[in-house]
């Protein structure tokens, strides 16, 4: 039987404070928790590699407060997942806990990740030539892929990724659905602002495109 490895004392103290429960090292881990942590790691690693080797950023800069908020957000996100393991117990060996929601959530995660990566590649190509060298930092109208349906498919893919993690949690974690709700409002606002900018800047911008969710928003 797989058991928890002891957390560092400081992390154990934080989890005890957040959950109001005292963890036990003999508790069987939940497969959902381990899968969500793994998928979050994969997602973060992919986004890091895209930032380093795919995306072409403008010459603007991010505000320090926004940068610190982003760092804090992912720390809290990880703690949220770990807390869920304190609030429930695995019901047997890890593989015996596998069910169709894990598979469905994992499949949606892969599809959404592919959509987001494709969108990031298409955005990068707007600023690079055929050789891959950067030719301009100016904004251009994105084309191809899901950009034919919405102005910001990469934001829509981000929402789908969080929904997929909720499915991996079994769809029963209220806390994670609140995280999904936050991502929905955050990404929808960003997409709408970007969509409005495209419409105001380009007279021939396709009017049939939605901002965020195909055929809806």
Describe the structure.
The chain has 217 residues and is mainly alpha-helical. Helix content is 59%, strand content 0%. The protein contains 6 helices and no strands. It has helices at residues 9-19, 31-53, 64-86, 100-125, 153-168, 174-201. α2 (31-53) packs antiparallel against α3 (64-86) and α2 packs parallel to α4. The radius of gyration is 20 Å and the shape is elongated. The mean pLDDT is 87.
Question: In percent terms, what proportion of residues is strand?
Answer: under 5%
Give the overall shape, derived from the CA principal axes. Answer: elongated
**Helix content range of the residues, please?**
55-70%
| Model regions low in confidence, pLDDT < 50 over at least 5 residues | none
């Amino acid at each position: 039987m797989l058991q928890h490895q002891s957390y560092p004392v400081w992390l154990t103290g934080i989890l005890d404070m957040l959950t109001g429960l005292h963890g036990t090292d003999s508790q069987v881990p939940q497969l959902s928790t381990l899968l969500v942590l793994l998928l979050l790691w994969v997602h973060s690693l992919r986004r890091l590699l895209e930032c380093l080797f795919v995306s072409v950023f403008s010459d603007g800069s991010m505000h320090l407060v926004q940068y610190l908020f982003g760092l804090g957000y992912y720390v809290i996100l990880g703690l949220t997942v770990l807390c869920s393991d304190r609030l429930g117990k695995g019901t047997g060996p890890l593989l015996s806990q596998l069910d169709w929601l894990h598979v469905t959530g994992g499949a949606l995660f892969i599809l959404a990740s592919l959509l987001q990566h494709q969108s990031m590649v298409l955005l990068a190509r707007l600023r690079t030539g055929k050789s891959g060298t950067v030719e301009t930092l100016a904004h251009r109208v994105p084309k191809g892929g899901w950009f034919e349906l919405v102005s910001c498919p990469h934001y829509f893919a981000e929402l789908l990724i969080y929904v997929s993690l909720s499915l991996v949690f079994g769809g029963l974690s209220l806390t994670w659905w609140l995280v999904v709700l936050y991502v929905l409002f955050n990404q929808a606002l960003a997409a709408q602002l970007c969509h409005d900018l495209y419409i105001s800047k380009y007279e021939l911008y396709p009017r049939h495109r939605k901002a965020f969710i195909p055929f809806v928003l």
